Amino acid sequence: MESVYARIGEEVAARAGRLWDVSLALHREPETAYEEHAAARLLAGELEREGFEVERGPAGLPTAFVGRSGHDVMGHDHMGHDHAGHGHTGHDHTVTARDPRVALLMEYDALPLLGHACGHNLIAAAGLGAALAARAALSETGGTLLAVGTPAEESGGGKVAEVEAGLFDGVDAALMFHPGVYDWTWAPLTASAQLRVGFHGRAAHPTGNPTEGIDALGALIQLFNTLGVVQRRLPPGSHVQGIVTDGGRATNIVPEYAEGLFGLRGGTSTALAELVEEVGSCARGVALATCTEVEVTDVGGRYEHFRDNEVLSGAFAHHLRRAGIALSQPAPGIYLGSSDIGNVSTRVPAIHPFVAIMGQEGSDHTPEFARAAAGPRGRAVMLAAAEALACTAADVLLGGGGSSSGDDVRARAWAAFREKAAQGL
User: How far apart, in Å, are the Cα atoms of 382 and each of 124, 166, 178, 326?
Assistant: First the structure.
């Protein structure tokens, strides 16, 4: 395997300037969720230039794409027919009977007003570099390499739609990295959902006929107060944060309609489901107490909690040490937001390590982080991550790698996946 890793390093190095140009091009022209048309064209074009067969617009997402190389192209078996790994429990009964499949993931949406303050330009360039290097180094190897463009991570969840469309069916490893302020082998990401709660009352003049009014805004305010009490007893990783999106039209009219948008998070997908039910129960209770009617609507796809695969993340950390970057475990009890990679990780073995591009005194989603994503440390991390991702892909496709060279990484990854699924983690 060492000769394979060396070849991958050479392939990444040969493309270093080009990969950085791609990263900077994305950084200069940030595009927000579902609007990443230039980014998708650029990345898909780079893949096609080096021989990937590219499908544009899968899962009904115009700015998504899938580049394929290997068995799925030669055999025209475009994934999903054996459904290995489909569903939350990972039914991998056909793993040993088929060639391995690895997906390298790319995110490329930016934040409104802040541009690439989450470093998705680096994620995209690293995923691209890993795909190109792995294909070049493993051109004579069986198996399938997928380069998956995943739009709208910040808002909307492109991976949610891609999972539901079966793009990850039959995949043995979904690999990506994320720049950050920590060097961690995995990301403690929570499950999340958004609920829209609308109260219907009855309009009235507050002095002319006040007894005929039913104050919808008063009901919404009462829900906020109720959830404030609930918040104090929620388990670690769970919380509710809401805003008023419609509070009435005039101060001399009792509001007949009021609406709030609530962001919910749970340390696990099960905890999130329980919190969603509790918020709904609170809303219905408030409606009963205030003589209003209430509608509770789930807005968009839910993000599931992230399930790290220790076999794969350990292999990535092992390979990243060649670049002098040592990853550690996140501190217990820390949660860092949510991502639609969670929905992938509960279907197939997946990784989402953090690699720091600035010190812990900073934070992502800031102008400072956006600058770091176009700086020299960002460049070095992107190239190191590209090489480590490609080496991890080689471990899965060839069977060995990491600190346990010669072992069947794919089988061990699925065993670890099944164990966590059985424990509900």
Answer: 9, 29, 9, 15
